[in-house]
Every structure is written in C-alpha cells, then in structure tokens.
Amino acid sequence: MSLQTLLNDLGGAGKKAGRSRQQRLYDLLRRAILDGVLPQGWNLPGSREMAREYGLSRNTVIYAYELLRAEGFVLSDRRGTRVATLTLAAPQESTGDGTEPLKLSVRGQHMGLERHGGEHLPFAAGVPDVNLFPWRQWFKHLEHAWKSAGARHLAYAPIGGERRLREAIAMQLGITRGISCTADQVLVTSGAQTAIDVCGRLLADQGDVAWIEAPGYPSARAILGASGLKLVDVPVDAHGMAASPALWRRHPPKLILVTPSHQYPMGGVMPLEHRMELLGHAQRHQSWIVEDDYDSDLQHSGAVIPAIQSLATQSAVVYVGTFSKSLYPGLRIGYLVLPAWISKRFSEAVQLLFTPGQALEQLALARFMESGDLARHLRHMRGVYRERQQCMREQLEQQFGDRVRILGGKAGVHLTCVFAPGTDDVAIARKAAALGVTARPLSGYGSQGVNRTTIPGLVLGYGVADAQQICQLIPRLRQAYDDVIHP
Ligand SMILES: Cc1ncc(COP(=O)(O)O)c(C=O)c1O
User: Fold this and answer.
1) Rg of the Cα trace of the chain?
2) Cα(187) to centroid(ligand 1), Å
3) Using one digit for the tens of pLDDT, what is the confidence trace for 150-207?
4) Which one, 139, 173, 261, 375, has least CB within 10 Å?
C-alpha cells in the first residue's frame, strides 16, 4: 500500500468521531507500522514535503511524527525520520509458521452453555419478572442511601458486607427459614455464584471430591470444577439429591452442593428425614454441606421445610442465599451463612479472593428489607408465579399430553418437562429459539464428559412470560417438538 492510499483514508473511513486530523494521521501511521505496511527502516518524508505533497498542514505532520517518536515507533535524527526496528508480534490467528494459536485452558474449553434464545425472551430459565419490580420503593431507599452517603461508601464495602444488611439478613432468615444466626455469620457476596466459588476454594482442596446434583445448576458445576475439585455426579429423584450407600463408600465427599428446598432444575423437595440422614452421613464422613437455597422465598404455597442449616447449627453446613430471584439478577447480591466456629477464619481467608462492593445498594437493600417492602413484593410475586405456573402446566398438558412429564415443584420461576429417552432436546431448543421461544435443553444440566447424564427435556421459565404469552407460545413449543420428532 502506498503512502498516498494510506493517507486517502484520512478523510474517509479513517475519520473517527472525536479524533482531530493530527490524531487521525498519527493513528494511520501507527497502525501501518504495527501491521508492517510501513517497513522497518523506511524513511518517512520530511514534514515539509509530507505537508505539501498530501495537502496537510505542517503542524499536523509535526504533531504526528513527534508522538510516534515519543512512543518509539519512529526514530528521528539528522538524516530524517524512519520507522524504528520493532519486534512485532504476529497476529495469533495467522502465525503461518505451524504453531497453534493459543487456546483456552483445557478446563476453559470444556465450559460453556449453548444459548438458545436470549435471557429476555419468554421462557428464559431462572429469570424473575423484572417488569413487576417495585421501582418506586427501591428508588426511594436507594436515593436515601446516596443522600446520606459519605466518601467511605464509594470505597470497597467492608469485608463481609455492610453491617446493617448482614443484620437484616440474619433477622429475615430467623423468621422465614428457622435459621438462628448472628450478623457475624453472614457474609455478603456478589450473588450465589461467588458464594459457591469461595466455598469451593476455602472448604476443599484441589483434587478433593465434590458432589453435585445431576441434573443440577450448570454454573455450580463449572465453578467447583474450575477450583480443581473432582466432581462426582449424584442422581436426583422426586426428593432431590439421592446418594446411594455405595456412593458414600466409594466416593466420600469433602463438599456436597445441594438444593434441598427446590432441586434445580427438577424441582424435588428433600423431606425432613432425608435432610437429617444427609446431615448424619456428612458428619460421619467429615463433609461440608453447601446448601443452595436460591429460591425458597418464592415458594408459591404451603409451608417451607426448614433449611438444613437450621437443623443442626453446630454442623458443617454453609447456607447460600441470593436476591437474584426475589429482586433482580443484576443486583448481584447474595450471601453465605457460616457456622459460628468458622465464620471469623473464613472471613479473614476470603479477603484476598473477593473484595465486596456496592455499599450503597447494600444499604438500600437493608432498608428495603427493614421497611417490609421486600416482604410485600415477595407476597405479590408468589401469587403471580403461582398463577403462571398453573397456566404453564395446563398448557403443557393440553399441548403435549403424555409426551412429557412435567416436573418443577411449587416454587420459583421455572418448570421442567422431561421427554422420552433419546429425544434430541438440543434440536428442539434450537427450533424453539427460531420460533421466538427460549427453552434450555435439560441435557445441558448434566455432566458434559464421557459419562454425560442425558435426560432429555426442557427447562422453561415463566418469569419473563405472562399468562397470555404462555397460552400463545406453548403451541409453538409443540410445533418445535413436532418438527424434530416428525421432520
Ligand atoms: C440453583 C441456583 N443457584 C443460584 C442461582 C443464583 O445465582 P446468583 O445469585 O449468582 O445470580 C441460580 C440462578 O439461576 C440458580 O439457578
């Protein structure tokens, strides 16, 4: 490419908003040097000649040359200005010398969730209805937090979180989950994902066995796997995690991640006697239980079984909660409740791994809880979700009959339908996405390796779809299903 062609771009494609002519000339020359278009040692025209030849002001040229010189791209001396000798990195994708471009780590290559439709589309799983979020009340508390804020609130939040929020959470858990804990035992995190992550890193060591539910929460699998734990799939039944005596003997776990109140995504609720059994086994095998209670505040009706953590306060149980379902996922506030004997050491150890922020959101949330606004919002949303779930069940039964088994319990924001073995749920999800419906294939919730757990089905959220949409869209899902089964 000649200098002329290069500089033609100065007024054309190279014209970027907010960049002066001088800066654009500098940008073009710098890019041309880095791409090897202007070869090393090549003499640039003198500033006067360059200005005359290419219709630029001399100051523009001097400015660009001076900047290139200061950054080391060109050298200037008595003989003029020439391109410096630089060891340029070859672009990774075109090394051309047979070496492979760098890839993700092996762990990274095995991670990833194929997306079938966006999180905003109807039936996106696990997303609450943010259209019904109480904006006005939230804004009032947030405004109050900002108005009474000092400079310290713009720094990192205190380790463990804002005291006032930790107290509000401890108080709420006592009322709603039978958990008796102090604010010192509550550690505020960036959502449940961070809570699970720090548990994996601080309660178990690389190579230790971690039990996870299969099917289970894909992020938890990825997070614990990324900590170097040896994951062992535990099957689930209508009562949630169902570990056989043989599994306890063969693969005793250091850490057990379990969703006992509403197994994700199959919906099983672990009865009290199973919870006690799990506690007993865990105690004998010196295993930590991490209890992910992600949506128990959205139980649609009936009494909620006490959290495992509340059954044995002296046991090695860490409770995980989140405001992602009850308020909004973008808030990124979750928490851990640690056993009293370990909370101080855990908080000290966590400091280098995770520094919390959002002090003002935390304060607003504390006030939101104290004022009763959260309880009111949850009461309203439970009713909304109960009706939507009912509607979705009826529609699925009508459209699919005995082609699906509908699971999901009576809580939260999703239902799961299970197809006959061998059904290609990924193909159905793809077809559904093309028809404007997000439906996550259930096979993606099991392990992805050789021993892939493949229960085909779809996980369907009703957080983003109201009753009218559900009635309109379940027939499309049936169409997607038919297109795959009878192409
Ligand atoms: C089983 C389970 N646990 C936890 C979470 C929430 O995680 P976070 O608080 O990081 O949004 C989800 C969200 O989808 C979930 O499905």
Assistant:
1) 29
2) 17
3) 999 999 999 999 999 999 999 999 999 999 999 999 999 999 999 999 999 999 999 9
4) 139
Measured distance CA(226)–CA(105) in Å, rounded: 10
pLDDT at 55: 87
Domain shared by 49 and 155, yes or no: no
* Helix (H) or strand (E) segment spanning residue 127: none
Number of domains in the chain: 3
Nearest residue (by CA) to ligand 1, atom 12, is 294
Output the ligand 1 site: residues, CB below 6 A.
Answer: 126, 191-193, 217, 259, 264, 292, 294, 322, 324, 329, 334
Q: How far is the CA of 429 from the centre of ligand 1 (A)?
A: 21
My answer on whether 415 and 470 are in the same domain is: yes
| Sheet strands side by side (includes 230-237) | 186-189, 334-337, 317-322, 288-292, 255-258, 209-214, 230-237, 240-241
Which atom of ligand 1 is least distant from the CA of 194?
10
- The pLDDT, as a whole number, for residue 101 is 82
Residue 193 CA to ligand 1 center (angstroms) comes to: 6
- Does 483 have pLDDT greater than 50? yes
Dihedral angle of Cα 56, 57, 59, 64, to the nearest 10 degrees: -10
Please tell me whether residues 186 and 63 are part of one structural domain.
no
pTM, two decimal places: 0.86
C-alpha dist (Å) from residue 120 to 130, 199, 415, 430: 10, 30, 17, 16
